[in-house]
Specification:
This protein has about 250 residues and is α+β, with helices and mostly antiparallel strands. Helices cover about 25% and strands about 25% of the residues.
Amino acid sequence: MSYKEEITISEKQLRFKAFATFVVFIVLLALAVFAWKKLHQEPEVAGTPKTLRSVLNFNGDFFANFLSNMHLAATYPAAAAVKNVRVNGDVGMDNSFDPATWKLRVIRGPGDTLLVSLDDIKALPKTDIIFDFKCIEGWSQVTRWAGVKFSDFAARYHLDDQTQMKYVGLMTPDEKYYVGIDMASILHPQTILCYEMNGRPLPINQGYPLRLIIPVKYGIKHLKRIGTISFSNQRPPDYWYERGYDYYSGL
């Protein structure tokens, strides 16, 4: 017959173990408080303590290595798309905006800006995408969008030299909202310059006449109402990066 030997612990031993556990807890708590204070005494880089910003940058660079054209966001049937698409964020959505005067400004280089109308963009092959739009606030919705693949747009306007660079910058007409996107993500086959939502022209509050839909990124990168597109080998300014978020913001 097998049995387990009963171990008896004296009251003195119990008190010692409880005291040792309490001491370890206090030491760990003190270290956590010290590290927290130390962290917040650091100089900030783009709205975030230097150490945290270094971690965010490392994470972005690391996960960017795994992005490829085979890395696709899941897609859904049209019936799965919500009818009432959530509106989130209105920075850059100036009420004085006049759609009749809008043209997309594509800055190919110093003194070389291409102006493209919405009709020009609609003349390119149309792509429809239904995917789970994810927000950094924690909510998501299956939504339906349509427009032109950025890669098709770049090919049509002979942006070969520009797409050899590392980044694309996009900005609203009033220049109040802006994002920076790594080139691999902007050329991803699911990234579109979007002019339709649920089979109809974009509503004004969803970025009419043209917005970015980039399913491999969180919603903060899906810039509404694109005014200007530019190219660079240095990271362009990014609205939420400057406020403490991850530059890459990939999924």
